[in-house]
Every structure is written in structure tokens, then in C-alpha cells.
Amino acid sequence: MKRQGFFLKYIKGKIIWLPPILFSIIPTLAVYVHNINLIGPERMLVPILYSIAFMILSGRVAYAIFKSEEKASVFTAVWVILFFSFGYILLVLGETKLSGSLPLSLNKLLFGTYGIILLLTMCGFFLRLN
Question: In whole angstroms, what is the distance from residue 114 CA to residue 83 CA?
Fold first, then answer.
């Protein structure tokens, strides 16, 4: 019975990192699925490992800031989603008429918006979830 309790405690501490891991490998898998006829599955190993390494590094930095695995995991998930979605959103919005009528470049506007989202996420952790 003690062994089962230890296992559940160990898994509970590690499973909170599952969303950031999944969010980090999904873009690589999406590229693979889009080009499935051109590249083999063995070619995905290195990009997936780089994505996971990026997530682990980001998670460690977030843990050093927040001193809580739950907060670090949520922040890392938000950061990874924003990081990997930047290029896609820039391409989609760049094809609209909106991009021509903006006072700033779309790149700067999107970068600022992402910065505000990350700042609001951090402020939410420091103000509300202590």
C-alpha cells in the first residue's frame, strides 16, 4: 500500500508537466502530418527532442520565477503556445486587409500583444494564486 502511495505522489508531481510537453510537440507533429508523403517519421525525432528541450528549459526558468510547479507548468504551457503560434498567426493576419491599415507593423503589434498576455498571466499568478 505504501508503494502505491509513493507512486501516486510521484506521478502527481510529474503529470502537471504533460500539457506543456504536448503543446511543445504538437507543432512538429502538425508539420509532419502536413508533409507526411515527403518525410518519414524518423525525421521527426530531432525536432521533437528540440521542442521538448525548449519546453524543459522554459519550465525550469518559470519554476525559478514562481517557486511552484503548478504555476510554472501553466505559465510554460501559455508561453509554449504563444511561441509556436506566433508565425502562424502572423501569416494568417498578414494576408488580411487589416495588416495594411495598422499604425504599427503587424509583427510589432503581435509581439506586444503576446507580451501583454504573458504579463497578465504572471500578474495573475502573483496577485491571485499565492
Answer: 9
Q: Where are the domains positioned within the chain?
A: 2-127
Q: Which of 50, 2, 4, 1 is nearest to 27 (CA)?
A: 50
**3-state DSSP helix/strand/coil % of the chain, to nearest 5:** 85, 0, 15
Alpha helices in the chain (DSSP H): 2-15, 18-34, 45-66, 69-94, 106-127
Per-residue pLDDT tens over the stretch 11-41: 666 788 888 999 999 998 998 898 888 888 8
Quick: pLDDT tens for 109-130.
889 999 999 999 888 877 765 5
Please state, in angstroms and rounded to a whole number, the distance separating the CA atoms of residues 30 and 51: 13
What residues contact residue 75 under an 8 Å CB cut-off, 6+ apart? 62, 65, 66, 118, 121, 122, 125
Contact predicate 110/90, CB 8 Å: yes
Q: Please give the Cα distance from 91 to 85 (Å, whole number).
A: 10
